[in-house]
């Protein structure tokens, strides 16, 4: 009986993959001139001349590796330039490299594997099977039951549709096709996940501004992502879905094809995580996400691979942020984040500043550990941050 069920599930999955691949082919058009490609030798000249560049790209793209990779192409034509243009044109990048398309993780493994190992702190680029934990018995609890420090909690994952390329190679029609199939899947959600889709192409500017200010919606002002082709054909194929209470959200065609998000005010990490896992279970029945043993869930940016999970809190830590580090020109907050594999960001997302001592602090590693481990790493680190702030 169970065997028959598994066989049926396999047939359904194979059918879904093949349907998505056919759709990607049908909507592939000749390259449209949105993405201004800079010749790879010009990019390399800029990067190799930059003596104060601290990116992982600069660290790992040696002359020898550059020579070995500069003429390689993936089967859909992705090249080294597509991967490194962002990091070469933005020498202040932290990472500086994206994958031109899913196959790029193999074609350009000579440099991408080194960046991945360095960022996720692993010895080998390999990812375990997904493991979200036993939802019936999992008790992550509320990190701040008395509402003293945590303003809000959010967990997000990224997903790519099998068969479709990443931004540098995605056509307008492919973006629209991905939008349509995602909205059809989202419209089958029920109960607390039931909601509505809002296209960026038709949304009024006031509403868009308010959704951004309230931390729900993405924007197109990240110069790192822009240079990687992330805003090609903006706002075509982009939009946001949210449940009636705005606690479950989906971003379509921002940096990744898909970002699934669960968030709410306060510190109840357990409730936020469980909601996301429930939505992922339902949506995986309708959509086929790109996944393999090397990368886990495949995403555009190598920092998001694996679990793709970023669990964050907006947390008030003014004392820790103001206290000097014992190790050089940093803060105590940065020390503690480094120690517990956490990443501090500003209040309006990556590459923004803190406001009023409130920081976005999340797990940093996503690959080489399970979803539950990534969440536990965040939980344990945040509890330490709270303890340290209270002690000052
Ligand atoms: P991502 O998390 O998707 O990688 P960003 O760092 O750009 O991307 O954050 C996206 C948005 O999510 C921003 O508006 C940011 O303020 C918001 N955000 C992140 N974490 C939280 C949180 N814990 N509570 C509320 N909003 C959050
Ligand atoms: C950079 O290289 O700084 C940008 N492309 C952002 C990299 C992703 N950020 C991260 O640390 N998770």
Folded structure, characterized:
With 392 residues, this protein is an alpha+beta fold. The chain has a domain at 30-120: ATP:guanido phosphotransferase, N-terminal domain (Transferase Creatine Kinase, Chain A, domain 1). Helices cover 39% and strands 14% of the residues. The protein contains 14 helices and ten strands. It has helices at 2-26, 40-49, 56-60, 63-69, 80-89, 104-107, 109-120, 172-186, 205-213, 223-227, 269-284, 318-322, 332-339, 371-391, and strands at residues 150-159, 195-199, 239-243, 248-252, 258-265, 291-292, 296-297, 310-316, 342-345, 358-363. The protein has an eight-stranded antiparallel sheet. A two-stranded antiparallel sheet has the order 6-7. Strand 6 and strand 7 form a beta hairpin. Helix 2 runs parallel beside helix 5 (80-89). The termini are far apart. The model has no long low-confidence stretch (mean pLDDT 93). The chain binds adenosine-5'-diphosphate and citrulline. Adenosine-5'-diphosphate binds at residues 152-154, 156, 215, 259, 263, 310, 312-314, 345, 347-350, 360. Residues 86, 93-96, 224, 301, 303, 350 line the site of citrulline.
Write the layout of secondary structure elements.
Elements: H1 2-26, H2 40-49, H3 56-60, H4 63-69, H5 80-89, H6 104-107, H7 109-120, E1 150-159, H8 172-186, E2 195-199, H9 205-213, H10 223-227, E3 239-243, E4 248-252, E5 258-265, H11 269-284, E6 291-292, E7 296-297, E8 310-316, H12 318-322, H13 332-339, E9 342-345, E10 358-363, H14 371-391
Antiparallel strand pairs: 1-5, 1-8, 2-3, 3-4, 4-5, 6-7, 8-10, 9-10
Helix pairs in contact: 2-5
The structure holds adenosine-5'-diphosphate and citrulline.
Residues 86, 93-96, 224, 301, 303, 350 line the site of citrulline.
